[in-house]
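Progress note, sequence design subtask.
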């Protein structure tokens, strides 16, 4: 699916998906009914209704196959963002045993990182332009500051070690969300799903070719189910794109208070 449909509001997205499905269904109905004359009509009626359940099952399996990837990506994205937020919060809390100026530098670096995530990384991830080549200067600075801190007791030594570990966890979680932002359902899967839906609609039209009202009703019901499935998958296809995407809310909620030197 193209970037344009993922950027649509949910209402417009639903309209596009349902309208597209209706147009394809109407085209299949018109073609089959136009061909259902003479020998072709008898051939269509010879198609066994028992063909429809396997076609429907295959469509359902394809939907489940694609949904497993989509929901897996969403779970990984949420886990990465929550893990990063937890790690950054731990850094802020663990910086308290150190002098005020050191705390201020660490908090400023964390605050700047979260601001960069909102302003730079999230839009880049939404358009799948974020890569691992993008570095986080703020987290690198926080790590440098932490490693350069003089320690005067066992408590500060432990805190310094835990801050370094938490920053490493934050960097790893950041890498994970960037990798997830590049994931999407490829065109081969969409192609297979759409062709399978069209085959099933064609089979329904052939089986009911002698009763146009029944054909319209059966095709309409199945087409609606197809549109619902496609809409659900498209709305969640990209973890960081669209109205239902993963938001940076957990990260924003752990932004540190203003540095002590600024209070």
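Output:
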């Amino acid at each position: 699916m193209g970037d344009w449909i993922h950027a649509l509001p949910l209402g417009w997205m639903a309209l596009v998906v349902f309208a597209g499905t209706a147009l394809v269904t109407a085209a299949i109905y018109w073609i089959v009914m136009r061909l259902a004359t003479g020998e072709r009509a008898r051939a269509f009626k010879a198609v066994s209704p028992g063909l429809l359940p396997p076609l429907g099952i295959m469509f359902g399996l394809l939907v489940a196959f694609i949904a497993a990837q989509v929901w897996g990506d969403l779970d990984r994205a949420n886990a990465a963002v929550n893990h990063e937020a937890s790690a950054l919060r731990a850094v802020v809390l663990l910086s308290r045993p150190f002098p005020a100026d050191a705390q201020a530098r660490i908090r400023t670096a964390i605050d700047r990182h979260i601001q960069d995530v909102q302003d730079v990384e999230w839009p880049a991830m939404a358009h799948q332009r974020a890569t691992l080549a993008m570095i986080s200067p703020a987290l690198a600075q926080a790590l440098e500051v932490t490693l350069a801190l003089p320690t005067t007791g066992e408590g500060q030594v432990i805190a310094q070690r835990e801050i370094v570990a938490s920053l490493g966890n934050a960097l790893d979680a950041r890498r994970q969300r960037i990798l997830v932002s590049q994931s999407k359902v490829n065109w081969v899967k969409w192609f297979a799903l759409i062709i399978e839906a069209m085959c099933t609609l064609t089979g329904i039209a052939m089986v009911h070719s002698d009763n146009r009202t029944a054909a319209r009703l059966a095709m309409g019901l199945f087409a609606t189910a197809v549109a619902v499935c496609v809409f659900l998958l498209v709305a969640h296809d990209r973890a960081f794109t669209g109205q239902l995407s993963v938001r940076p809310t957990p990260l924003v909620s752990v932004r540190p208070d203003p540095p002590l030197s600024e209070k």
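The two ends are 49 Å apart (CA to CA). Work on this subtask will continue into the next period as scheduled.
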